Amino acid sequence: MKRTAPEKALDTSSGAEAPSPHDPDTSPMNDATRRLVFPLDYGSLDEARAGARVVAPSVGVLKVGLELFVREGPAAIAACHDLGRDVFLDLKLHDIPETVGRAVQSAASLGVRYLTVHAHGGRAMLERAAEEAARASAPLTILAVTVLTSLDAQDLTALGLSASPAEQAERVARLAWDAGVRGFVASASEAANLRRALGPEALLVTPGIRPAGSAAGDQKRITTPAQAISSGADLLVVGRPIRDAASPLDAARAVVAEIEGALAARST
Ligand SMILES: O=c1ccn([C@@H]2O[C@H](COP(=O)(O)O)[C@@H](O)[C@H]2O)c(=O)[nH]1
């Protein structure tokens, strides 16, 4: 039976995609754990390694973002591979097509599984990113960032955009889809709408996740883990509520348990 892009992306055990040469952790991971992405938003590689090691048993994907990559570069990616986790390189590329295309090649050579580009970079840039990812020797999914979860309607107005965040996210997601991109970063509050617009093949990755009672910080379009899953999100990015918890592992476990409950409810 043909599997959807999200099913393939979430399946780390099938061998349908080339197994990662960096994957020493062969322990089985349940579906809920696979869906939790933990951002290594730390100031140094040592801190990132320590933070990742603690939560790794409850996390499916490790995300390397601007803070860590600017300081530590590819060593940060290697550290995630050492823990046997897929790497999500969150650089939100936004440049001319040639520059982005070559950056996608560089990311592919590092063996990352997911790479973000800004959907607002336009169709030619998105096409080039998707083409380069398709040429990579190992699976690499381009994720188009639709509207940052730290922005609300007022912020869009200030940028000269009259659409609501949900409308703008759908508009640029459709543009990215037409350019060949199949992965999308959006608030989970837009996940149901994007799923309706793009169908089951779209991989929906949702930051701005806040378990009940945790501080929003600079995030403006937030949902709980359960709301995200019930809205059709595939991967949930949860950073500070785990990183800054008294016990990051317990916090990660609680998120996984909430995802598990919501998945069970979703399938009934
Ligand atoms: O729209 C976006 C795109 C990316 N992010 C990234 O996700 C994490 C969220 O961390 P929290 O601590 O859970 O807020 C962070 O690395 C962002 O760079 C996002 O938040 N929103």
TrEMBL record:
The organism's place on the tree of life at top rank: Bacteria
Pathway connected to this protein: Pyrimidine metabolism; UMP biosynthesis via de novo pathway; UMP from orotate: step 2/2
Alphabetical UniProt keywords: Decarboxylase, Lyase, Pyrimidine biosynthesis
Residues reported to bind substrate: 41, 63, 90-99, 149, 210, 219, 239-240
Pfam families: OMPdecase
GO function terms (MF aspect): orotidine-5'-phosphate decarboxylase activity
Residue ranges, compositional bias (Basic and acidic residues): 1-10
Orotidine 5'-phosphate decarboxylase domain ranges (all copies): 35-255
Complex and partners: Homodimer.
Protein name per its UniProtKB record: Orotidine 5'-phosphate decarboxylase
Source organism: Polyangium mundeleinium
